[in-house]
Design goal:
Length: 237
């Protein structure tokens, strides 16, 4: 029975710590994508781009010129965004406060017991895991964006095309819309990461602020006790 219980505990711990890309998507919870307004704003931008191209009557030369500019802009942006995202991820994982990490994990362990009163308790992913997964997801999206843009840039440079001009127009319209979506979504993810870093810094400050308040109260109490003791000694004298 003891071994069985130990195995169950280990399996629960493993479920709370998935690895690899699959683990990243599990912790991030891919359903959050549909809850994020930035995804819909980027989708709207891509859709508007597609409709304006289809109904705008752009010539093939003008469309190719526009795609070339968008791709160049996206390649220069995404390269910098990936570096920024990796720097933020490294900052949290490597230089994060050990005290804050322990505090977040402890809060995550206590929360279900406080809410459910020891009935059907279930520990989920901690705030630290969620924060790191947001950075990881942002890097993943930006890398996918960079690969898509690089691929089309290669096609553009090699001057590959279909024999049917309508297929070329449809493909270019779709690709340009996809490129706009990926670039804007990548930029919105940077905003999300910035908010993420700010939230973690506030939590860190809150932890040290509480400790400083406790130390300050202890100092005042010690000083008051000292004054009280001195007064009692004078009275005795």
């Amino acid at each position: 029975m003891g071994r069985k219980k130990k195995k169950e505990e280990l399996s629960e711990i493993e479920l709370l710590h998935p690895y690899g890309l699959k683990g990243l998507l599990i912790v991030y919870d891919f359903r959050n994508v549909w809850k994020n307004p930035s995804f819909y704003l980027a989708t709207i931008a891509g859709f508007l781009t597609f409709t304006s191209i289809v109904f705008g009557g752009y010539s093939s030369e003008k469309l190719l010129e526009l795609i070339g500019k968008i791709v160049d802009t996206g390649l220069s942006l995404d390269g910098g965004l990936i570096g920024l995202s990796l720097a933020g991820l490294t900052l949290i994982v490597t230089f994060g406060s050990e005290k804050l990490l322990k505090s977040i994990v402890m809060l995550n362990v206590r929360r279900p017991f406080e809410k459910d009163c020891l009935k059907n308790t279930k520990i989920g992913f901690s705030g630290y895991q969620t924060a790191v997964s947001k950075f990881g997801f942002a890097v993943f999206v930006q890398v996918v964006s960079l690969i898509v843009l690089f691929f089309y840039n290669l096609v553009y440079k090699l001057e590959l095309s279909f024999d049917d001009q309508r297929l070329n127009t449809c493909f270019n319209s779709f690709y340009l819309s996809l490129a706009v979506f990926l670039i804007i979504y990548s930029l919105f993810l940077v905003v999300q990461m910035t908010v993420n870093i700010f939230t973690i810094s506030q939590m860190n400050h809150s932890l040290y602020f509480s400790e400083c308040i406790e130390v300050f109260i202890a100092e005042i109490k010690k000083k008051d006790d000292s004054i009280t003791n001195q007064g009692s000694r004078k009275d005795d004298g």
